[in-house]
Amino acid sequence: MGSTSAHNNEGLGRRDLIKRSAALGLIAVPTMSFLSACASSSSGKDEEKSKGKVTKDNPFGVAKGGTLDVVIFKGGFGDQYAIEWEKLYKAKWGPQISHLGTQEITGKLQPRFNAGNPPDVIDNSGAQQIKLDVLHKNGQLADLTELLEAPSYDDPNKKVKDVLIPGTADKGFIGGKMHALQYVYTVWGVWYSGKLFKDKGWEVPKTWDAFLTIMKEAKADGIGGLAHQGKHPYYVNVMIMDLIAKTGGLDAMKAIDNLDPKAFVGSDAAKQSIEAMYEIVEKGLLMPGTNALDHIESQTAWNKGKAVFIPSGSWLENEQLKQTPEGFDMKFLPMPLLPGSKLPFEAIRAGAGEPFVVPEKAKNKTGGLEFLRMMVSKEWSTKFAQEANSLTIVQDGVDKSVTLRPGTTSAVAAVDACPVEQRFDYFYTTWYSEMDETIRTASAELMAKRIPPNEWLKRAQAAVDKAAKDPASKNNKRP
Amino acid sequence: MQQGKYRFVTGFLIVPVMLYAVFMIWPYVQTFGYSFTNWQGQSQEMSFVGLDNYTALFSDDVFLKALWHNILLLVFLPIATILLALFFAFMVNVGGRGGSGGIRGVRGSGIYKILFFVPHVLSIAILAVLWRAIYRGDVAGLINGVFIKLGLSDPAHPIEWLNDPDLVLWCVAFVLLWWGVGFYLVLFSAAMQSVPREIYEAALLDGASRVQSFFKVTLPLLWDTVQTAWVYLAILAMDCFALISVMTPGNSFGGGPDHNSEVMATYLMRNFLSFGKSGYACAMGVVIMLLTLFLSLVTLRVSRRERIEY
């Protein structure tokens, strides 16, 4: 208990204060560079690792022994698959492997990147991933071009790029070169319960009108039409963007990725699509309250039959395993078509996710590259499918003996029904984090009926224009 | 006795001061340094940009919005928390009917103290999850469920508490209030326990009502404690990071819908981590630090009074 008495005449006079702060300012500016220089200790260069002999089976010249430092995002896929991989890697090359499975990619790795001693392989994923565009700008990602050109593990006469599903490697291109191996093959769309459809006698809706009709009938029965993960506008944004790509064709999608000044404002496809989405909101076909729910809450409500449709990627089934009732029969639906669409109903967003990277300053960069090369072998890809119930970007990379669940099976059927040239995937999400965030926020506002479609288009276009101002954007171009 | 006093005290303080210097002051100094650069957070390559970050900051609409939200919290939170905590503390300590037993709290005051303090025992992450279930935006939310049962709202349009631009900030502020009151109740109780009983008895004998004895006796004698509480709560209002980032919508660190619950701390983190504008984020950190320092000084100065000895 105590405070000083109110009468002390110590402290600074006003004149002194001004003098001193001016002096401080003079000292401060030159010392800034010094301060930020010692703000983190950067470790010195490591001695060059001894190189092994470069052969067809060892294209990067990996030396036996040494060390390999692997950090894996331990999320929906767990990290058991990586532990299995490491056993196989150790059996072949015999290094001391240090393995870390974590959700805190940023917390664990940011200090290491700054200090110049990052691990050799990172599965940089999850909510706390370090954004790839940021890492790339900082020169922290190794160029993976030599990986693409290297002979593949299973068949040295084929290059790595030829054993991947066409177009999937492109998702890892930043600034015109490959910097990440996006490993998991994912499809996005809308999901429903096959059982509910059977009970109500509904047909698979291929057109937007049929889609709305089902939702209206559901509403009459006291079921919500569309649920979405409102707290994370990422999901509903996928729906909007897919609708734009299907309505306006691949050109409409590329216009957005290439930061076209008419990507949104002045694009008929974008206007038509966002108005169609707004129709769902206006007609009251959303599941009541869905805008305020997070992904687990909304998906669980959907599992309980409170809504007919929900947008998500093919990880949905794995995520909802415990909440999915017996006989639910999860089914995948490509986005239904608006009149005059350029792409057919079968067209889907399918592409690679889950970026694996090798840091530029890794101690054992060759080992990291070799690890990635082994990842796209049939053996490793099958291991992944077994442990994580997901497909990889390796062509026919999953042994037929692996059984998949109903949702994944229906997603695989959708992929098989869609020719490769009609599968599409957006890249702006990897290239321009801030633009992505802004558009998602606008989508959340639209779904909550707080902004009209025109305002959404304006905001999205403003985000595009802002991203285009960054000189670094010049290096990203979609073919 | 007097001679070695300072050396003795310094000897004891040197370790904590060293720790404080290494883990608090030095990072602040570094942040200050980084705030003049265009550091992107993932490598040590950066160049000096002078005051650019600071000028950009004050023309950044989102930052100004976040600052405004912090100011709203700063005005509302300390006043509401301290008033409620003082009232409850008074009731559980000296607000009871003075029977033959003299001065005591209302009946069951021991239980009240425990009940009020419980929220403070839980970690803030648990609180955030708990309150998300209470505010949940569909019919499964606790408040919405009750409202619908009472016929106050329509099941087809439940109130989306945390997704409503006008409500979201106050929903979070209420949680902070609920969380803070218990702690300050205990703090003020402790201070009240040290007030001699005779003073209250004298006031009672003179026929003072509860209200009078609160304003004439309790408050003046607790002023030091109230002042401390005020500074702490002001610092808390400048932060709020944990609750906002867990409870509110948005992709990285919440702050939604459409920045309607954004506070400086959440916007700082998003710039630092998601957008790779770490130098810019450091400039925000410096602004937050200066504001907090300024606030603490002002609070201590404005609320200074003559000390009452007892």
From TrEMBL, chain A:
Protein name from the UniProt record: Carbohydrate ABC transporter, N-acetylglucosamine/diacetylchitobiose-binding protein
Key words, A-Z: Signal, Transport
Gene Ontology, cellular component aspect: cell envelope
Family affiliation: Belongs to the bacterial solute-binding protein 1 family.
The organism's place on the tree of life at top rank: Bacteria
InterPro entries: Bact_solute-bd_prot1, Chitin_NgcE, SBP, TAT_signal
The keyword DNA repair is assigned to this record: no
Pfam families on file: SBP_bac_1 (PF01547)
Region spans: Disordered: 460-479
Localization, UniProt: Cell envelope
Protein source organism: Streptomyces lunaelactis
From TrEMBL, chain B:
Transmembrane portions of the chain: 12-29, 71-94, 114-134, 167-187, 229-248, 278-300
GO CC annotation terms, alphabetical: plasma membrane
Membrane-protein topology: Multi-pass membrane protein
Residue stretches making up the ABC transmembrane type-1 domain: 67-299
CDD domains: TM_PBP2
Superkingdom of the organism of origin: Bacteria
Principal place of residence: membrane
Swiss-Prot/TrEMBL keywords: Cell membrane, Membrane, Transmembrane, Transmembrane helix, Transport
Family, similarity comment: Belongs to the binding-protein-dependent transport system permease family.
Protein name as catalogued: ABC transporter permease
Originating species: Streptomyces lunaelactis
Lineage: Bacteria, Bacillati, Actinomycetota, Actinomycetes, Kitasatosporales
